[in-house]
Each structure stands twice: as structure tokens, then as C-alpha cells.
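Lab notebook, bench 4. We co-purified these components, and the gel suggests they stay together. Before we commit to crystallization screens, I want a quick structural picture of the whole thing.
Request: model the full complex, all chains together.
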Amino acid sequence: MSTTPTPHNKIVIRLDNVTRVYKVGVERIRALDGIDLELCQNEYVAVMGPSGSGKSTLMNLLGCLDRCTSGIYELDGYDTTRLGAGGLAHIRNTRIGFVFQSFELMGRSSALKNVEMPLIYSRDGWWSRHKRARQMLERVGLGDRVKHRPNQLSGGEKQRVAIARALVCNPSILLADEPTGNLDSKTSEDILALFDQLHAEGQTIVLVTHEESVARHAKRVIRMMDGRIFTDLSSEEDQARRAAMAEHFGEVSK
Amino acid sequence: MKAVLGIPLAFLKLFYQSVYLALGQIWANKARSILTTTGIVIGVASVTSVIAALTGLKANVLSNFESLGTNKIFISPHWPREGRFKNASWRLIRFRPEVFEGLRDRCPSIDDYTLMTERSEAVHYGVHNIDSARVYGINPSWHRIENRSVIMGRPFTLMDEENGWQVCLITPKVRDELRMDRNCIGKRIVVGRRSFTIVGVVEQRVESSMFGGMGSSQEVFIPFPTAWKLWGPWTWMYAIASCRKPELSAEAQAELRFFLRRARRLGPGDPDTFRLEVIEEYLRQFNTVAQTTTAIAGGVVGISLLVGGIGIMNIMLVSVSERTREIGLRKAVGARPSAILFQFLVESVVLCLFGGLIGAGFGQMLTGLIAKIPNASLDKAYIPLWALGLSFGFAAATGVFFGMFPAIKAARLDPIEALRHE
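Here is the predicted assembly.
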């Protein structure tokens, strides 16, 4: 069965019956309840769902910020469930790039310094950090904003800096949590176009969003409900299904 | 090879990384950093300057001691605290010149000795007089033992002693007080109703501010036999011996003790009826006292370093809580807990060392000021290297100690919680 994986079917993420249980007082909340998921290289996935559906928990888990209560999470074939805090930090540093809704840039530092930050903590990026950060800023179209501070940048530019920072360590997967949540629709489109471009260049992307318009850019849409995967369809199938449901319930889709 | 080098290299990198981040943070918060470190600045400045002042005081006292001579042994009569001589009459305790006969032969470690006696007398020359000058009876060997030579005229000789001549030596101070000519040799002055011929002028004693009170500089010297004859056998008499080398002091004392016990016919059970005193012993005692004083004063002032440390801890805690999101972000992009811990720890240590550096500078300035205080005999004040090292080490230790708690707090933050922090 073992075939050498070609770039397009190599499995990056494998979740096997993953659960995550929070204890709140005496109550036990199953934020994730038996998730099975496989993600291949160069996939572009949108995770959707109402609040409380467990999508944030899933993102934290995929980003190795959190640990599952039971089940197995493999990233690039490494079982992450047995790693300690240091090991998880190393995984986050080398294999995962985060983009946040509120950018999370350091206000006192220039765009370049912000992008350099992950390289400070990497094993071998220290000496080449200026060069790599500059290259990455050029790649996201901010080659002329290197010395600017976040308060001198627009919202879209800030998010581009954040994306450059997420990509500077060449991660296996780019995790974006509502990347356009704080942006107007025009800027959102620019950022999403950037995501499309990165996807075209071979980057694996997972993004969490509320907005259908954002999800439409993805090639695969995962909808969650009560800690479980509700539907996991390709973008076209998902659209078709939504249209059918809208017709059935007489809703007007946005 | 790579595996062997891996751990120290990783540590070195962690260190370099932390220093880089900490310096960046301190530079970004210049005003706050300076305010925070003020406590340490004051602490280090006060510790170093207090130690400098005490060191200066000590150096001054020591040089005063040395001007008295370190290889001298003072021999004086002394009532023992117990034994049959406890309440003995002065007749048995006092010294007589005969006691010291043969001392040079019996005590090989002794270089020389002089018999001494002294009292205050009025001195007249014409209409001028000094109410109370210190008059000493001395042997010729006194010049060598006290290291005070004659700057004019001649010193005492054996002739003066043998003949019991009424000759005297005076200090320039006495000459000036009595309004005599510069060349006063051959003039006659009245010392305690007797007339003495001045044969020489002896150089002034080395002015020591500490022991200035021990004797005025208005000194008149007469031959010991003359003094003994004039003042009678009941007068207070003592002796000063010098040993050949300072290292021989203990042997010289043992020899003297043996000699004097024999001369005074003390039995094996009898305590000494005399006392041998050495400057060195005082020196040792003084050194102990000085060290204790320095340690106590340094320690008390060191409390201000502690206060500074608490200031550092306070600011570091504030810094951790206001940078919670940043810590969350750093963790999210792959900072290990150890890297966060080190970053904050190094930040507080660097702050403290920075404060220590400025404090040392201030301490140096303060020391300069202290040294200029008039009449305080602190002109030798300086910051010894060990005090500098100690206060620096203490500042760094303060940084580690008081930075540890905030740093651990930062390192333990949950990245998800931290990123959600408002």
C-alpha cells in the first residue's frame, strides 16, 4: 500500500478520533468530540461553524497551541500528542504559521522586526533573519514598507506583515483565524487574493471564518457543529448543497 | 562532534538571543528602565561609597599606626589581675633602670632599647614660657628606635649619660614658642626650675591626626639618668625596645618576658608584673574591628539594594502582565518556555547590571567628594576592587532573584489564554 507520496497527495495533517474535553467546574464540555480529518499538501480548507461549534478549539489543536484529550494528531507524519511544551514550541516554530484576526504585531517594532521574530526562536534562522524577512515582505508586496511601524501601516498592510511573519519559517501549514475579520471588504479581497496566490504557489492553508464570501475562496469547506464535523465537502459541492438547502427552507443566501 | 557541541551552542544561542531581546525591550522602554533601575543605582552607589569611606578610614588609621613603628615593643609596669602581686605596693611593681641591665646580651632578637620616663613641666626662656611641655628622659638609642634624628646640633651621647649633664634637645615647635633664634644651640632654658643647655634640635614627630592627642609636639628631651636623678625613683618609667625584624616580634617578646621574669625574680606560678605591648597587636585588633564594621555597614546599606530589587520585581511583574499578548504571540510562533524565561530573566539582570554600572559611577563620584571632606581624615578613600565586584555580583543576584518570579510567570503562561488577554 505504501506509495511514495507525490507533492499533491502527501498527508500533512491526520487527526484520528480526536477529542478535547474542558472541565468547567464540575461540568465537562466536549469541545471536540471524535474528529477524524486528513489534510493533504497544498489543500486550501475553510473551517466554518457557529460559535461554540469547536472550530477555534480545532484551530488551537492544529496549531499545537493545545493538546487533545484523546486521539492522535499527526503533523507531517510526527505524532505530536507525546511532545512536551518545548517540542510543541519547536513544531510551531518550524511547521506552523499563524495569522490572527487582530494581526498581533508588536507595535514598537518595524515590519521587518515583526517578520524576523519567529526566526529569532528558530534553530538556524538566526543569522539569515534579515534577508529572509525582507524576502518574505517582498513576497507579500510590502518591499517598500520594511522600516514602517504597524501604526504607520493600513489594516491590509498589517495583515500582510502578519502573513509574512507566518510564512517566514517555511511552515507546512498556514493557519488563519478570521484573517479578514478586522478588514473592510475591499482589503479583505486583497488579502484573500494573496491567500489564493500562496495556495497557487503550493502553500497548505487552513482558515477559520464566519463569512461565506471568504469560504468561497477555499477549495474545501469543513462545517462544524457541536464539536463534530458536520459536512466536509469540496467548495463546489458545498455551494450546491447550500443552494439546495436555501431553496428547501426558502432562505435567501447572502 | 555536533552532538557534543550542540548543548553549549544551544545555550549560547539562547543567551545571545535573550540579551538581544532584553536590550531591545530596555531600549524601547528607556524612561521606565531608568526609573526602575534607580533603586539599584542608589544601592550600589551607597554600598560602594560607604565601603570606600571605611576603607579610607582604615588606610588612614593603618598609616598612623605605621608611623608609630611596627617593630617596637612597649614595656611597662603592670599590676597583674590575680596572684600575690595583685595588691602589691608600687615599690614591687615599678621599674628601675637596673632591671634592664644585660638585656642586650640576653635577648638576641632585640635590636636596641631605650629607657623612658616623662612628665609635664613648665619651660622658660627669658620672658617667654610654655606652661606645660612634655619632658622625656631618654637614652641615646631613642633616636634610632623612634626614627627621629637631630636636625641641628648633636644627639645625646654616652658622655651626657655618664656625667649626668643638664643638657636637652628640643623640637622646633618649642624653639618657636620660646621665640628663640633659629640656631638655639648653647642657649640655656629653664625646665622645671632647673637650667638646661640646648645641644640639639630634634625633628618634629610625624603628625598623625589619629593619635595627635597622645602627645603634644612641644617636646623637650633630657638624658635618662639626669631625669631619673631629678625626678626620683618613684617616677613612672618604662622602656621601648625594637626588634631586629618585624617578623621576630613574637620571639623578641618571649625573650623579653623570660628576661624580665628572671630579673624580677617571679616564681613559676606568678603572673607577669609588667606588660609588653606591640603595635602589631593593636593593628590586628583594629583590622578585625574594621572588617566587622565594614561588613555591617555594607550589609545595612545593602538593604537599599534589596529595596531596589523589589522595585525591579514590581516592574517586571507589570511588564509581564502588560506584555501578556506579546508573550502569547512569541509562544505561538515557537518560543520555548525556556526562551521566554530567559528573556525576562536576562532583562531584569541586564537592568540591574546597568544600574550597578551607573551606581558604581555615582559611587566613584561620591567617593571623590568624601575624600575632599576637610578634617575627616578620609582622603585615602577609594573603592576596593572586591567591593565593586561584590556590589556588581549582588546587583546581578538581585536581578536573578527578583526577576525569577515574573519570568517563571511569563514562561508558564498558556499561549491561548495569553493571546486572548485584553
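The mean pLDDT of chain B is 86. Worth comparing against the SEC data before the next meeting. The two ends of chain B are 47 Å apart (CA to CA).
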